[in-house]
## 1
Amino acid sequence: MEALFVAVSLIGKTLHGYLVRSLLGEGGMGVVYEGYRADLEKRAAIKVLKTLGDASSLPVLLEAAGSSDAAISEAALETLAEIGGKEIDDAVVGQLGKSDGSLRPALMDVAGRRRLAAAVPMLLKAADEPDEKVRSAAIRALGETVAITDLGVLTARLASPKSPQESAAVVEALRAACRRLPDPQATAVKLEEALKSSPPQVKAQLLDVFIVVGGTPALKAVAGSLKDPDDKVRDAAARTLSEWRSEDAAVELLALSKGAADAKDRARTFRAFNHIVRKLGFPREHRLALCKEALEASKNDDERKEVIETLANIPTGETFAILLPILSNAALKEDACAAAVRVAERAVRFHAAAVADAMKAVGKATAKEDLKAKARKLYEQAGGKS
């Protein structure tokens, strides 16, 4: 209903030579309202505001965009973002260049939504003004407009933000820019340049931005930060990799964990590895292979328990092949039994034979009555014979 609010706010205004008299209706592409042109004594239905707007509608829409009513403001901004034509682009840039009042944040928002590169010089200047509202609007708009050559302007601002709010706004602007820029590899290279020359607190913030870039160069840049001399940077790098969106991060984390000389670094990379394997839905056979490798590389029972917990999240018959041999380990037996039961609960419909065999083994191995009861029930559900 947001477009409806804008239409109501236009009643009594003149648009395209027509006096807006009343609202007639609303559709997916905009609104329809009655217009009257006195010089022609002509009534008309003015419709689909988002596609019929031109530069003459800009003052009225900007007025609506500056409304204290959030619904009216947002709808006007959406309309300004979507109506087409270079005429509107030029008008927005022109207004931004000469405006010094309350409409400036709205104009910056529109420049960002329309991704007007011509507005970048003015946005860069506005980002240094004393008014925090203006600065924040400019920074947000820069995230939608800067080219890769100007990405350093945003990364540099993280070193000396004027407030915590500004720091957060810069990070969000960087994320928006990196999502938008067309060459992820070049973007990763540019970010890595900034990463290498930044102080530790900025590095920690920049690392999180690499996630939206993705790809091998970005992954390698973050993985390289796990060797940074600053402990907080290494922690941020492990945390970033644990939230990565591709399987290769799990492979990288396991390799880093196996090669870590420091116990704390090993623990955080091993923990991040398990987190990403549990979270991501890459092929189960790949997840099982990584878990098997991690189990073999584990140095203590705490690490083995982490892998067992990860295996409990892979509901397939092949998971039992890794879990059941652990039942002979007195220190890990109950963890493995519990994990096997969790796998069986989700796999029984599709891997009945494997579930029956596994639950029979669990029933014999566990000393916990609740697990025995669950294993017995699942054994029978899978068609096992008493």
## 2
Amino acid sequence: MRWNTPWPESRLITDSSKVNSGDAAASTLGEMPWASASYDPFRMGECTKPEILVAVAEECLRVGASEVTIGDGSQMPRFDWSLATTLDRSTNLAREADRLSARYGRTVRLACLDVDTAAWLEVPTAISLGRVAISIEGDGSRVSGRLAFDLGPAAASVTAGLLPVPEGFAAAAAQAPLAAQWNLDLLVVRAWLQPCLHAIDEDLGRLDRFGVRSGRAVLQAFDPDDKSGAGAVVLDLAHQKFFASQLDELPMRSTLERRRTFGPHAGHSISIPFVATLDYVLTDKLAMAAVGDGLLAKVVGSGKTEPGPVASIDILPPAMSAEAWRTLLGALDRRDADVIVERLLRWREGHIAVTIEGTSLLVAATGVRR
């Protein structure tokens, strides 16, 4: 028995009489992909406890399953199974899978089903990449596709160019209507592209004005009627000149501003009467800003960081009203906003992630219809 389901769903084998000498699978992880040092979905009751999964896996092995797979579908290309800890924190799914495999002499496999189940089709190519492969699957309500490029030794340089993400960002973005990340250092990207750009007489040096190296943004809420909302932006910087100049343009800033601390970062809050309170941190290496009660502090957490994807976009259309989406698209001067919103709201969620897996650059996209 094997399921490949959207991550909000949970299903378990509950009747051991259904297991024979074939494979068995449990698909139950829910919020597990966003688990981090500061966000424990197991303790918060947002996904099945590892203790239950381990007990089910052992029962399947006891009654004769030749292999047990524990996994679920998500927009994440890989899960960190060591973060799936038991309530007493004494062990985790990765350790228990190894223990059960050794005890029963049969494999307990941990799988991200979006990546580990669908077949790959290798595509012939004459370009310099080693291999290109594609995988597409779907049913009546869900579709996913993946494209993999074999970068060979160059994958290491991409990984080295990734800048880390604040430890609280993933939790802040987990159920947000819209979240996006670009974590590959733009200074590194510019150096890679410069020979090609020089050949067509283009130069990215003008980007130096802004000093942005990478960025993440999350929109948690937006109400166009009372013009309120919550969201955060986190940027890695080469310098702070541009953003410091923008702050200097704020009228009565010295009167409205007060000092704050967010984790280890010294920052400020600017309370704009009848509008919003803006929390921010600005240094030569970092710019962070948020609107929303305590949101910046949650994103920063203790100040630690964790690895992130090369890039990602996550959207949950039903999490925001149609009018809110129209207002956002209107701000982008999209005259076809009504059509876009009508089609957008046909979907429950959509995810695109670009990651490095071994020596491959993986582009994964998933959409779930309502």
## 3
Amino acid sequence: MLTAKQASFTRIREAKGKASMRSTLSSKKAEELDMDHIFVPFPDFLWAYTFIGPFSYILWKRKTIVLKLRKFLHKAGIITLKCDYEALAATLLLEQTQAIHYYGRTKEDSELGNLAGFFFADFPYVDDNCDFQIAALFAVDIDLGTKRFVKAKLGDDNLTAKETVILLWYNTIAAQHVKLRK
């Protein structure tokens, strides 16, 4: 087995020896995925630098200006911001990386309804005193018919939809994202 770095250098050596720079993948298997050492041929880099980069910057700049305008209008009291936390909690669980925590669902003829349960064992969070804590279990129920939040518990505490969204978003950026990048 090769390390990711060794596999990357092998791909580069193999690519330099061939007439076409497009064949850059090695048949050898790396032990781990290392995104820092992926060889990109110069024509592909130039195309992305010329066509993707500037338009991504324009899109980012436009959205940032709109966000600042909305922030100003909200501060001035001209607009009010509304958030449907029940729907947002369901979206984070059903359509994002949190879906891997799906545990099970109720039977179709259940008196509880068509619910899906998401269980997070040893759930890390930051408490009100900014101290790192680990809850034994964070459980969230979502109604699959309406795709809305039903209830959530962190240990023995019942949570609102807003508190659940905060914890789910924290977990998305602090734990799930890190796992994806390893």
## 4
Amino acid sequence: MMLMRYRRGQRVISIGLLLLPYLTCLAKEPVASAPIGLPPAANLKVDFVRDIQPILSQNCYACHGPALQMSSLRLDQKQSAMAGGNSGQPIRPGDSANSKLIQLVAGVLKDAVMPPQGERLSQEQVGLLRAWIDQGASWPEGSAASAEPASSFVKSNHWAFQPVRRPVVPQVRNSSRVRNPIDRFVLQRLAKEHVTPSPEADRATLIRRVSLDLTGLPPTPEEVSAFLADQTPQAYEHLVDRLLDSNHYGEKWARPWLDLARYADSDGYEKDKIRPHAWRYRQWVIDALNRNLPFDQFTIEQLAGDLLPNATLDQKIAAGFNRNTLTNREGGVDLEEFRTEQVLDPDDDLGNRVARPHAGLRSMSRSQIRSHQTARSLPAVCLL
């Protein structure tokens, strides 16, 4: 993950990646609304064992059962099913219309339907599930699907896999140090670790720190004097806005991204030939940060900019992200074979280059079978 742009009108800048989990948690949770087009609930008293368990067993257990729990969701046992997975609680007893399980099996969500393959649930089956949930989602403890299996799947506690929720802002003793809600989380953790906050920096130190953090350059003597002379309450905010408007902001913050994307100006290997047009991708990243391109679009254009409808030249350049690997152009090299190996290189493959900067994961690779006779790599399993 990387630090994206500070918004004008706010008084706070979060520098560094330490606070990213807190920033993520502060996002608002959308307000649920009943979708249009759901089949009506069945007009009968539903029995879980007779009516519901067969539907779950036939349609859901392959991906959300004892052997596999996609998105950390398990539907063959009561406690796990009610708790939900990475996308939150799928069953809301008494409210089938806003239960994500119903919305998915009914196919009313855009680009999302369950089961993802095979035959869809009938309207009668969806109606039974709706009636069961509206009647309180009764799940008898004696049913086979409610029993805890011998081998229970443990969900990851890593913050990146948790549903986004707004946490309760903690109360702290030293409220005089609070400038915004994020400060309260920082002060709470410092108190937990029995660490006393450092004294507030003087203004000359402050401008030096924020200048180095945002642009990588120290302030000039004239800039320091101007900041010290500005005694208005918005002095710090104006300073931050000026630094974010500087082209040096993109140059500074493009560097960690380019490192994760494995960018280089040359091929590597013995010849290490110069890549005469590689700088265009580097410049695209700099410009994207300076124009505050939203992170979702920043990601889409790099992964598939050349495949977008009516793709612009800049979007095609962004797709250079996919070619930031070592390139061997020495004599005797089969260029098409090596192009395939570039994608499958276990130390530098596309899966890892996507996972590390986008998902905060150390590795997301795949197994590979290598033939010693032909020295060709064959993809066996591609997790990406």
